[in-house]
Amino acid sequence: MSGWRPARLVGRRELTPTGRSLTFAVPHWPGHLPGQHVDVRLTADDGYQAVRSYSLAGPAADGAVELGVQTVPGGEVSSYLADDLPVGARVEVSGPLGGWFVWRPQEREPVLLIAGGSGVVPLVAMLRERRATGADTPFALVYSVRDPEQIWYGAELDGDAGVRTRYVFTRRAPADEPRPPGRVTADDLAGLLSPGRTRAYVCGPTGFVEHVAGLLIAAGQPADRIRTERFG
Questions:
Q1: Burial grade of 146 (CB within 10 A; 0-12, 13-18, 19 or more)
Q2: Do 11 and 62 form a contact (C-beta atoms < 8 A)?
Q3: What is the pTM of this model?
Q4: Which of 50, 90, 183, 231 is 20 to 30 A from 79, alpha carbon to alpha carbon?
Q5: Could you list the residue ranges that cross the membrane (predicted)?
Q6: What's the CA gap between 6 and 101, in Å, rounded?
């Protein structure tokens, strides 16, 4: 979908010290698939414009769309959107965008979601769509974060009894976590992948995505059944 639509900020929620959920009212929004994203355009009073891409966090509800925004040190757009854009203010959005990194409820193959940090946002959209449609497709999530305070949508993920969720802490783990801090390993994926049957979705920083894709390939997962979305 091309072109720009007016979008009004109607809600902001803090998810982590640097992560925010922003809800925008977008008149005549055409709907979107879980895993898609939008471009957001801000225009300053002097005419200067900045455009950034953000993932959609769930199905549209009554013309409202939810975006996940991670503040970036020195980022002129992310910090403003996350903390300074007033509720009621207007921006422009273009989308929905992307047709490869999506999941449709009619797809029956088991799904393995692997997220790094804020890369969980489009995967949460898939989990929400699964719940909303009553799909019984087997889902598992491996979620890598630096420490427990960096988990996005933690209560929602913990409350989704239909999904097997594993947290991987890379810098600091909870006191009762038996796994020592460190990056995702083959052991973290053990028992969650049926090579050739499972469809894997991996989202996060570029280095994380490349590392995890390598683990999946080494475990026998065909490359054409690995879908990746990267940033940074």
A1: middle
A2: no
A3: 0.94
A4: 183
A5: none
A6: 25
What does the pLDDT look like over 29-49, one tens digit per residue?
Answer: 999 999 999 999 999 889 899
Quickly list H helices, 75-227. 78-79, 121-133, 154-158, 186-189, 206-218
In tens, the pLDDT along 121-130 reads 999 999 999 9
Mean pLDDT of 55-73: 89
In this model, does residue 164 exceed pLDDT 70?
A: yes
Query: Domain 111-231 class?
Result: alpha beta
Q: What is the pLDDT of residue 146?
A: 97
Contact assessment for residue 34 and residue 107, using Cβ atoms and an 8 Å cutoff: no
Tell me whether the omega of the peptide bond preceding residue 17 falls within 30 degrees of 0, making it cis: no
The pairing of beta strand 64-70 with beta strand 139-145: unpaired
Query: Residue range 80-104: average pLDDT?
Result: 95
**Domain extent listing, the chain:** 5-97, 111-231
Rounded distance, CA 10 to CA 96, Å? 19
Instruction: Identify the band that residue 73 occupies on the pLDDT scale cut at 50, 70 and 90.
Output: confident
**CA of 56: how far to CAs of 63, 67, 76, 100, 190, in Å?**
13, 5, 20, 14, 29
Give the Cα separation of 211 and 191 in Å (integer).
19
Asked if 124 and 153 count as a contact pair (C-beta separation under 8 A), the reply is yes
3-class SS of residue 41:
strand
For residues 196 and 136, the model is more confident at 136
Handedness of CA 195, 120, 35, 104 (dihedral sign): positive
